[in-house]
Design a protein that fits this description.
Elements: H1 2-21, E1 31-32, H2 35-44, E2 49-52, H3 56-60, E3 68-69, H4 75-82, E4 90-94, H5 98-109, E5 115-120
Parallel strand pairs: 1-5, 2-3, 2-4, 4-5
Signal peptide: 1-19
GO molecular function: transferase activity
Pfam family, one: Rhodanese
């Protein structure tokens, strides 16, 4: 009887240890902010990454100065080669907010830890450029 109890105890301890060692993959959600909050972050950190996830033609028609273009449907393919630092803040926008939400979540799923979705350029009342 003692042997069975000892074996059972060892089994419980081993199972508990293995479960504790299992990798827990938790994904956080991107932070949704306003265009004004994004502008404030840009002003306070001029080197911050600004990511436009619209199409190339939309980007050429006007974008936020300094923005990088990665269309939202190419995030999973291009992000890791273009955005090396996964701990650096990234501000994401599109035209209306739908694609930026998809792209921001994809970035978070890829392991980027400071992703801020400020919706669409339609809400951006500040300067844009076409160059």
């Amino acid at each position: 009887m003692k042997k069975k109890s000892l074996v059972l105890l060892l089994l419980v301890i081993t199972t508990g240890s293995l479960m504790g060692c299992a990798e827990k993959k938790t994904t956080s959600a991107p932070v949704v902010i306003t265009a004004a909050e994004a502008k404030d972050m840009m002003d306070k950190n001029p080197g911050i990454t600004i990511l436009d996830v619209r199409t190339a033609s939309e980007f050429q028609s006007g974008h936020i100065k300094g923005a990088l273009l990665i269309p939202y449907d190419e995030i999973n393919v291009k992000a890791e080669s273009m955005l090396k630092d996964k701990s650096a803040p990234i501000l994401v926008y599109c035209r209306s907010g739908r694609r930026s939400a998809i792209a921001a979540q994809a970035l978070t799923d890829l392991g980027y830890s400071k992703v801020y979705d400020f919706g669409g350029i339609a809400d951006w009342t500040y300067e844009t450029v076409t160059e």
